[in-house]
C-alpha cells in the first residue's frame, strides 16, 4: 500500500491522507523515503548513513513514536551534546515534540531529562559528552543521533550496549553523517547490522534552493562532499600513512611519562588550530595524551595552548611558524602573560621551540608513521577526531580537496620533537 500511495501525484496523495481516520498508520509511513524507515527484517541494529539535511533526525523521531505506539516503554536517546538533544532531537523542527502527529503528546520533565507519555512510556535523553551517565540505566530501544560527531564514540556505544537489556528484542537505531573514525569502521563491519543511506539531494524538496546551489558549487566532487553530502564512508585511502590496526589504546599511567610537549599547528586561515599533547615514556615508547585543537581568535587559541601545557606539566611547546612568522610564538607568549596576570599560573615564562616546515606534510609524517607501524606509539582514549584525520591522510593528500589536517600536523610536530631526543630524527 505504501508503494502505491507514494506513486500518486502530490495533490492526490495529500487528499488520500486527509481521509485517513485516526486509527490509520501515521503520515510519516507514507511520506518517508525508503532509506528513512527501519528495514522490514531489522535485527539488533539499524544504521542510517546520510548527508547533511537528509532527514536523519526526523527518521529517528518518527521511529520513537512508532516504538511507543507499539508498546515499548523505555527508550534512550543519545545526542552529541546536551544542546543538541534540546535544540534538535527534542524541540527542533524534526524533533520528537514537533513530529507527534495524531499520537499523544509527551510531557517534558527537565529535571529528569525525559519525555513522559500519558500511558507510561518514557524517553530519557543523554549527552555523548558523558558516556558514564549511561552506566546503570536500561532500555528496550536506544536511538543515537550523530555518533560520528561524538568525542567518545566507542565508550558511548559500549555503555549503551550494556544497558540495552529490556524486552524480547532490544534494538539500537543510529543515524549519522559518516566520518572515517576507527569506531565507525568497526560499526559498519559488525554482524547483523542493517544499513541504509541517503544524500542531501534526496531531501531537496525540503531544503533551500540557494543552499543546494551553493553546496554543489563548493563541495560536489570533493572528498568532503562525498562524506557530508552523499553520506559515503570514505575508507582508508591508497598509500595511507596510518592504519587502524596500528593504533594502540592505553590509559598511559602518569608514572610512565618521562617528557611532555605540546605540538601547535596554526591554521593560517579559518581552519582549526592543531593543539596536541604528546609524551616520551620511560620505556622509550611515545604516547598521545590529548587533543586540544580549537578554532577561535588568536587570544583564544593561545590560551588553549598554554592551558594544555600547564594541565600536562609539559616541558615545552613546539610551534610551527610557517604562517605568520613569529606571530604564533607571540600569541602563545602573550597568552602566558595574560594568564599569569590573572593569577592562574605561577610565572609568565613558557618554553617554546619554533619549527619550520621545509618539507611536505607526507614527508614529515613518514618517520612518525614508522613509529606507529612498529607499535611504539600509544593513544589515550577520546582522540577520535585526530584519529579520523590520521586514517584519511595519504601521500596523495590535497589541501584543496581534503582540507588541512591541523590535528595531525600538531601531533607530528610533537612526536618528532620527542623522537629527536632519542633517535635524532630531523625536525624539518
Could you characterize the architecture of this molecule?
The protein is of the alpha/beta class and 428 residues long. The chain has helices spanning 2-6, 10-18, 27-31, 56-69, 82-90, 153-163, 182-188, 209-219, 223-228, 298-311, 327-341, 361-373, 384-392, 399-402, 406-423; strands at 45-50, 74-79, 107-109, 114-116, 122-127, 141-145, 171-176, 193-198, 248-249, 257-265, 274-281, 286-291, 316-320, 352-355, 377-379. β13 (316-320), α11 and β14 (352-355) form a beta-alpha-beta unit. The protein has two domains: 32-228, P-loop containing nucleotide triphosphate hydrolases (Rossmann fold, 3-Layer(aba) Sandwich); 244-423, Nucleotidyltransferase, domain 5, CATH 3.30.420. The protein is globular. α10 packs across α11 and α12 (361-373) packs across α15 (406-423). Strands 3-4-5-2-6-7-1-8 form an eight-stranded mixed β-sheet. Strands 9-15-12-11-10-13-14 form a seven-stranded mixed β-sheet.
Give the CATH architecture of the largest domain: 3-Layer(aba) Sandwich
Q: What integer is the average pLDDT?
A: 85
Specify the CATH homologous superfamily of the largest domain: P-loop containing nucleotide triphosphate hydrolases
Q: In what order do the strands lie side by side in the largest sheet?
A: 3-4-5-2-6-7-1-8
Stretches where pLDDT is under 50 for at least 5 consecutive residues are: 20-25, 423-428
First and last CA, distance = 66 Å
Report the radius of gyration as a whole number of Å.
24 Å
CATH-defined topology of the largest domain: Rossmann fold
Number of separate helices:
15
Please estimate the helix content: 25-40%
Helix/strand structural class: alpha/beta
Order of helices and strands: HHHEHEHEEEEHEHEHHEEEEHEHEHEHHH
Largest sheet: 8 strands, mixed
Work out the count of structural domains: 2
Overall morphology: globular
